Amino acid sequence: MNLEGIEDAVSRAGEISWRNFGRRICFYFPGFTHHRSKRVPRLDGIFPSISITGSRCFLNCKHCGGRLLQAMIPAESPERLLEVCSEIKRRGGVGCLISGGCSVDGKVPVKPFIGALSEVKKRLGLTIFVHTGLIDRETAEMLRDAGVDAVLIDIIGSDETIREVYRLDATTRDFEESLEALEESGVPFVPHVLVGLHYGRLRGELEALRMISRHRPSALILIVFFPIKGTAMEFVKPPPPRVVVKVLTEARFMMPRVPMALGCARPRGEHRRETDVLAVRAGVNGIAFPSDAAISEAKNVGLEISFSPLCCSQIMEITRLIDERPL
Q: What is the distance, to the nearest Å, from the Cα of residue 267 to the centroid of all Cα atoms in its chain?
């Protein structure tokens, strides 16, 4: 990817975003932990992540190895899921992310839990996001009928990455068909693109964005590879911040009216600070677990700032504020 003119691209992307969504940004702090920052109000985490497979994942992808599942609340039966959601509600929570490991076909096995999800929506009124992996239209329609608020799905634009990193016998066409199924079902859907998934290098991210742009996503989340101890890629370096933000600006040029956020999965430390500052200037609509530098930069460029304890996929709600006048 040519990084020449990145400052100009950041400036143009910012102007497009602010013209369509206004000069505002939301910072998200989901989960059951407290985010330590002197620049934000104390926000109790009231939007946890739940794994319906516990720590099990058939694929055992090289970048994750099931490690991310270990930080989630296990609920491996519909009955247990209802119990966990009831406890979330009792403690003042407002929703949760339902996720889990994938089966051999690249799908999170959500079907047996859809009845429980419908009950959670009807009885508890929680906001429910479901991370599905690959999905067919029947399952998408069942999730729609259950009343889930949105389906989250990772989109990969490289057959090589699907095989080598995900260890999945599938192609980009399978991911495109999942987007088609979601769009045709009418359920709100929020694609995620992981920058640097192919051993820290770009390989298919722009194709993933092109695939997404052919459909009507409710929002787009960019996340960034970071090495996780104990995985096959624990010594791989993440892509540089300027590369990440170049992908972000390309996403904005392709989808000027789609809300976009930086998700919680990304490197920490100086990498996060630099990425966040550039992303704020590029007009990203939301950032999960922002650095203090991101909040300072948002103030410096005169943005209206809000804070939320929800999942950053909730950025899709900003579409209500879009000015429908053409660019």
A: 15
pLDDT tens-place string over residues 127-149:
999 999 999 999 999 999 999 99
Angle between helices 172-185 and 205-213 (to 10 degrees): 30
Confidence of residue 5 (pLDDT cuts 50, 70, 90): confident
The mean of the pLDDT values for the chain is 92
Distance of CA 12 to the CA centre of its chain: 24
Structure token digits, residue 68: 């991310």
CA atoms within 13 A on the CB side of 174: 16
E-strand stretches of 47-126:
49-51, 73-74, 95-99
Whole-angstrom distance, CA of residue 263 vs CA of residue 286: 8
Q: How far apart are CA 261 and CA 286, in angstroms?
A: 4
List the helix and strand counts (H, then E) for the chain.
10, 11
Structure tokens at 168: 């999945």
**Assigned fold of 6-32+45-319:** TIM Barrel (3.20.20)
The type of residue at 264 is: C
- DSSP state string for 245-285: HHHHHHHHHH-TTS-EEE-S-S--HHHHHHHHHHHHHTT-S
Q: What is the pTM of this model?
A: 0.92
3-state SS class at 288: strand
C-alpha closest to that of 318 among 15, 17, 13: 17
The DSSP output letter for 239 is P
Token duo for residue 9:
């691209």
Q: Helix, strand, or coil here: 204?
A: coil
Per-residue pLDDT at 66:
87
In this prediction, residue 1 has a pLDDT band, given cuts at 50, 70 and 90, of low
